[in-house]
């Protein structure tokens, strides 16, 4: 059946379904960019569009990301703007399986619903298959918005796949190899003719004089220039037309000038003095060949920067065993839906996120978290797509598939981080903006100076060679790749180590941190406290106290609350039916039991409500001196008793604290817990600065005040009450075992159990910034040194000059060296650290060579 096609959005170019002023994300590939000048031009063009709030164009990933107001800008205008700037931009395709099956008239309703979603360029619907292909500008939350639109139209859907993969650069690499091969095959005889044409036996009978040889050389050089060289000529001329010359313009101008001069000398030698009748056909052919070789090596190296994402994509199996009508059947992973039951044998990859309903096994999480030791799972355990049971089969109830899995979330987060611009790039961006025009000016000035002032009488030859060499040696590419190549490798490597940077800027910010603030419960401690003691005032029973406390905490997700409920369950106590339980932030809970007000929480909560602790105050102080957390219970203004809970330190916390101090960092403990248990933890870990009894806002104020004083502060937490501090810090880090609010607020997520990845995250960020600085030093130093040398500055003194061929080779290799230096980050923490301040990575994330990918 012929698909039903529709453009996105109404004719007016607005999306009425989207609230005015709501910004949407867009992320799409851009083709044709070869240097920093290219990415800068695309960014400037997009930044001028109405409704655009933020733009980032990444040369390493060849992608553009922006935030825009869909009420003022439609996706088609975004794409056309890139095209008008001289580059290619195409939407990506997202496929949706729609249910129930579409009936007569449903196709129009579904098409209009999907086309009205911000970010959609067009919709192609095949009603007979209940399948839609959505052309779109990718972006955070697009899949969810499409499914919501379907739901409003009365349908449900499942995102099947998104076009585009980490191997998307394979096609471009193949074209480069093809062009390089053609250029080399044409340039070899060209150089042979140029260097030894008159001495090749038999050739003089075919080409009796220099003019005939020059005509053949010119034909070969012209074939190279118009054939493989078209990838410089076309984009270079378009850049001139847009008054924004780039690296392609420099190569096209340099090789074109050499070719044109040589053709004129060959076809009209009388125009030139005999001493100036030199031809440079071999220079044209070899320069294009050498630059293509450099670009091919660079493309190969840049493809390696996406190895981490390719490895994540490879974790998803192609097929799964699904229970259908009482039998296990092999189906495509694309056909899985939430609610399906799948079976995963030992050694196979889990195809979706879900919950184990039958079976017991140890699951290898190393592919996602870097954790080398398998984790035991059984019924009711949660498992994730891409992981693998090592010693037993599991039956799993599917909860999330496709783009909704945690693995897909990791890939999206890494892509988002890789596309970000770091503050350290600002200098390179400013230089690149005027770099190419400046090089053209220097080249022209070089020619004129040599032409008019060369004392040797070879002004035309020296001027032409030097001017062409200047054009070819200048390399804005290296400056443009210095930062994004390193960020791309580092964020991918971090993800494979279980460190997820949600924003690329966090990588630089974390490298500059001087102070690390910790929450206590669930961060430095295991987050699994237990009730170790309790006491009741005269007239109250311990059983009644526990039941009332469990009733107050029955809906709590806080580790202390869960511990109290678990203690009641173990003793067989029924939680009291407390009503209207509300949270008093940073203090505790308030509820109603049998018409009376009940308070549960800290000493501070009761004092603020005018309640005398009586004999419980001394008992609580004794418990706190023993490192226990004390929870007091009061009813209708009268103290009933208290419970002591103990939460042991995480096994890795002392080692992590020692390593962070060894890296020159100051450690601070900021907790809502009482001073007694907080002091005990601080003393054990050697933390000298302590802030105890803080509510969430006070945590945020303490951290924010330090940042306002100019300190660079990282905050590490795991709970809802840590959200203000995570948001106030220079960098917020959350444990993946923490609450969703904490993880969403944080800039960096540490996957796997515990804090073991924290030193690695800081060490990797520092090494990444060192790599970026080295890249920038090389990129700037290369141009500062070689452009004068290419201009012939050393010729009058030492007779040294950079030939155009040497200049082209140097330019091609400069980008390769930048990318190659960045690729060293891929070996971070593989056995030994490359960061001198972190010489022995913790076993939990290095794992030798065993389980670590």
From TrEMBL:
**A biological process term (GO) from this entry:** copper ion homeostasis
Q: Which InterPro entries does UniProt cross-reference here?
A: ATPase_P-typ_cyto_dom_N (IPR023299), ATPase_P-typ_P_site (IPR018303), ATPase_P-typ_TM_dom_sf (IPR023298), ATPase_P-typ_transduc_dom_A_sf (IPR008250), ATPase_P-type_domA (IPR059000), HAD-like_sf (IPR036412), HAD_sf (IPR023214), Heavy-metal-associated_CS (IPR017969)
Query: Which ranges does the record mark as transmembrane?
Result: 180-200, 250-272, 278-297, 431-453, 468-492, 774-791, 797-820
Give the membrane topology, semicolon-separated if more than one. Answer: Multi-pass membrane protein
What are the HMA domain coordinates in residue numbering?
24-90
Which Pfam families does this one have? Answer: E1-E2_ATPase, HMA, Hydrolase
Q: Which domain of life is it from?
A: Bacteria
Keyword vocabulary terms for this entry? ATP-binding, Cell membrane, Membrane, Metal-binding, Nucleotide-binding, Translocase, Transmembrane, Transmembrane helix
Q: Which GO terms describe its molecular function?
A: ATP binding; ATP hydrolysis activity; copper ion binding; P-type divalent copper transporter activity
User: Where does it live in the cell?
Assistant: Cell membrane; Endomembrane system
Where mainly located? membrane
Instruction: Please provide one cellular component term from the Gene Ontology annotations of this protein.
Output: plasma membrane
- Does tRNA processing appear among the keywords? no
User: Which PANTHER family does UniProt cross-reference here?
Assistant: ATP7, ISOFORM B (PTHR43520), P-TYPE CU(+) TRANSPORTER (PTHR43520:SF8)
What family does the database annotate? Belongs to the cation transport ATPase (P-type) (TC 3.A.3) family. Type IB subfamily.
Q: Which protein is depicted? A: Heavy metal translocating P-type ATPase
Organism the protein comes from:
Leptospirillum ferrodiazotrophum
Its lineage reads:
Bacteria, Pseudomonadati, Nitrospirota, Nitrospiria, Nitrospirales
